[in-house]
Structure formats: structure tokens, C-alpha cells
Amino acid sequence: MTKSSFGGHPFLLGFEQLERLVERTAKAGADGYPPYNIERLGDNDYRITLAVAGFRDGDLQITVEDRQLVIRGRQDDGEDTRVFLHRGIAARQFQRSFVLADGVEVAGARLENGLLHVDLRRSVPEPVVQTIRIVSI
Fold first, then answer.
1. Where are the alpha helices (DSSP H) in the chain?
2. I need a labelling partner for 15 at 20 to 30 A (CA). Which of 55, 81, 93, 106 fits?
């Protein structure tokens, strides 16, 4: 039995990467930590907010790799001399990924009251009409 893929359809020329993008998106949201919100702030502005209580800005890293926004968090417990009688607040590392559409860029990020806000902006390209000249041989 052959695997059916929409990227191989004859009318979808150049969309082979779309199938990989869908697979990557499905894998990105597997873990539920940390919780997050996605807001629409305007026609072309969005905000992703992650609940990262206990993380400092130096514990967080935001990168964009091949249209994928990756937010990583890692707390350093290196010189922690505290003795816990009960430890209910986890200090675990995380990686949360979001696939960005073409033209969406990170406009900025800020950490405020245990919430990491990542602002996104979509640039709208000007429509282009191209006329192709036909050459007779």
C-alpha cells in the first residue's frame, strides 16, 4: 500500500514542504507544559503568552529556526543549598514550538509577572501580477 500525500498531487506544484510543515506542527504541541495563550491583537499582530513562573529572563531562550519559533526554558539549580520539606513547584526545563506562516516575524518579547509575552507581526506583501512573454520559435 502506498502512502497518500497531498504534496504529491499534480496540481500542487512546489508544496512538498507543506507536508513536512504539517508533520512538524503535529509534533510541536505534544507536551502541555508550560500552558500558553495565543491572542490576536490586530489584523496583523499576534501575541503568544507562556506561563513561566519561576523563570528569569536568563533562563529563557527564544529562537526562530526555519519558520519555527522555539521557546526554551532551563533553570539552573547549581548552587541551591535549600532543603525542601515539600517541593510542589517543579523546576523543569521545557521547549515549546510554534510554526510561523510566511511573512510572520517576532516583533519583540518581554517577561512580566511570570508571563513571557512574545509579540508577532505579519507583513502583508504587495500583490504582484506578472505577465509572461510567449516566444515563437
1. 16-28
2. 106
